[in-house]
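User: Could you go from structure to sequence for me? I need the amino acid at each position, not a summary. Structure tokens:
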């Protein structure tokens, strides 16, 4: 799909999309919590749909209620299929693989698109320590897993992704771990673990967080037989809306919990630092460009690497050189986001320099119209679209449907704010 963004002034009010980080964790918790779960405000991105299909394949019964909520009945992990597919969701794969291993059946775990090339050596190293038989494709998908998982104290490396730890926390709790610990070295993205522990606690699963270096299971976990869970608004998708407001007009975004543990809530600090005008309440965030020109800022995105794309879009309109650290976290995303941002924003005349773990964006010199490519990465597509709102000409995004992974309504939401957005289907690969 080709989507064209014509420079526009935006205004109005929007509800933030549902958080796929919250939604996918709720799906996992509902599966391992024997009984009934009702999930309110469920997401329907591709990653959300993949998570629902995984838990359905592992024995959960899912019914959509009249109000749009989902009722999930589960008797624990009781696979009804020999293979499950995580789509393109890195969280889905890393979280569900240990949960799948709660079963003694041999299950093949597969994925699609960029997930097929992302490294999963973690499982080859850790699973045998837990009594799990695993066969991988040289550290990549597909994986063949046979449990049952036997929770034991172990030590893991948390530098690549916190998502592996999320899967172990859920699976250890469900397996009845008692008096065992998971020790973690160099844990990244701690706020995502806060979200995991928050969801687990809501469902009745108890874990002691000992300064993010050790996670202790005291035992006695049984979960709850009846749970209601409301999926949070998504700070990751909401970040693009907030940046759009900061550069292209005054808007109001509702449904973002300012007390959330989501890592990408940190976008607020960058918006403050660059001089955007914000009014923040518990119910909504009103944001606009501010009185003067936006100015360059410094930001550490080590614990929130998904913010790089909206931050680059923001920095493009900030006078001076913005410095964002944490580039090392970008290599194994849907694309190598550091290089992809450099190349695609370069087409729009924005200079990005990569210096080790730092990204330097030279902003305030104008963004020109261009044809760019999403690289099949949802966040790249959204970042280019936001930049297009204030470009010097049309920005045309190839493979623009990549947004369906996390925020399928994104272009429609921009239109509701008054942006000129048009899309058309194409035949074949444009790149």
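Assistant: Here is the amino acid at each position, in order:
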């Amino acid at each position: 799909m080709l989507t064209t963004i014509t420079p526009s002034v935006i205004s109005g009010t929007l509800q933030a999309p549902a958080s796929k980080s919250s939604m996918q964790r709720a799906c996992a918790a509902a599966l391992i919590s024997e009984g009934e779960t009702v999930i309110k405000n469920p997401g329907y991105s591709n990653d959300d749909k993949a998570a629902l299909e995984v838990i359905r394949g592992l024995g959960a019964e899912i019914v959509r209620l009249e109000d749009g909520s989902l009722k999930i009945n589960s008797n624990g992990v009781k696979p009804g299929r020999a293979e499950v597919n995580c789509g393109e969701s890195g969280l889905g794969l890393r979280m569900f693989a240990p949960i799948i291993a709660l079963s003694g059946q041999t299950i093949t775990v597969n994925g699609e698109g960029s997930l097929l090339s992302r490294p999963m050596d973690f499982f080859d190293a850790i699973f045998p320590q837990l009594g799990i038989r695993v066969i991988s494709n040289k550290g990549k998908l597909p994986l063949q897993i046979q449990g049952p998982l036997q929770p034991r104290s172990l030590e893991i490396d948390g530098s690549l992704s916190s998502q592996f730890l999320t899967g172990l926390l859920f699976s250890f709790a469900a397996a009845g771990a008692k008096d065992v610990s998971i020790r973690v070295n160099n844990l990244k993205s701690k706020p995502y673990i806060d979200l995991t522990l928050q969801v687990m606690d809501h469902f009745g699963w108890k874990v002691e967080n000992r300064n993010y270096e050790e996670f202790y299971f005291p035992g006695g976990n049984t979960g709850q037989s009846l749970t209601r869970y409301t999926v949070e608004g998504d700070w990751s998708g909401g970040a693009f809306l907030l940046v759009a407001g900061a550069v292209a007009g005054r808007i109001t975004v509702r449904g973002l919990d300012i007390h959330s543990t989501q890592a990408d809530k940190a976008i607020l600090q960058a918006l403050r630092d660059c001089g955007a005008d914000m009014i923040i309440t518990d119910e909504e965030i009103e944001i606009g460009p501010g009185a003067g020109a936006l100015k360059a800022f410094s930001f550490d995105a080590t614990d929130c690497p998904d913010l790089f794309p909206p931050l680059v879009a923001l920095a493009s309109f900030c006078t001076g050189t913005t410095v964002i650290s944490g580039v090392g976290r970008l290599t194994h995303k849907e694309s190598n986001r550091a290089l992809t941002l450099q190349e695609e924003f370069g087409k729009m005349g924005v200079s990005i320099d990569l210096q080790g773990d730092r990204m330097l964006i030279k902003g305030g010199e104008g963004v020109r119209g261009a044809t760019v490519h999403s690289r099949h990465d949802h966040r790249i597509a959204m970042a280019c679209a936001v930049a297009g709102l204030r470009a010097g000409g049309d920005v045309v995004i190839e493979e623009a449907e990549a947004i369906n992974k996390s925020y399928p309504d994104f272009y429609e939401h921009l239109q509701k704010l008054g942006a000129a957005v048009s899309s058309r289907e194409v035949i074949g690969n444009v790149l």
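One structural detail worth keeping in mind: The CA atoms of residues 200 and 307 lie 25 Å apart.
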